[in-house]
Every structure is written in structure tokens, then in C-alpha cells.
Amino acid sequence: MTMKTALAILGISTWHRVAMAENPADASMWAEAIEAKVDPQSGLVPFGRQDFDNLLGHWGVCTDQTSVLIVEELRQT
Asked: By the 8 A CB rule, do 30 and 36 touch?
């Protein structure tokens, strides 16, 4: 059983990278958040609270590799 499946059984909506593939707008936001973090020369502003709320606000939790890349930013918001 995956973590996503276990959380679903508990009634917790879980973002998983599969959700990104199902929603191209989310994929673009994830790409922007990661690029802003790893490439300061990109000119992108690092994501803040409102940005993460727009991206993840409708999920109870997020799991998987993509969210691990920005865990510090998520913790700070």
C-alpha cells in the first residue's frame, strides 16, 4: 500500500506527482517554484505563502519527490 492510498483511506486528500501530470497548470507552477529555488539568475521570485496556497491549498498533504525539492520553502510559509 502506498502512502497516498493509506491517506485516502483516512479521507485525506493527497497531492502526488501523478496529480501534476493530470493538471498542466500545476506542472507549470511546480516548475516555476523549483526553478526560482535552484536558479537565482532566472529572475523568478521564490514562492511565498500565497503562491503555495494557490498550488497546494486544496490538498490536505503533499507527498513524493517533487515536494521534497521545496520542503524548506513549504515549511517557511
From this structure: no
Q: Which residues are CB-neighbours of 74 under 8 A, at least 6 positions away?
A: 52, 56, 62, 67
Q: Would you give the distance in Å from CA 31 to the centre of its chain?
A: 10
13-67 pLDDT tens trace: 998 888 878 888 888 999 999 999 999 899 999 999 999 999 999 899 988 888 8
| Residue spans per domain, the chain | 3-76
End-to-end CA distance of the chain: 30
φ and ψ at residue 76, rounded to 5 degrees = -80, -15
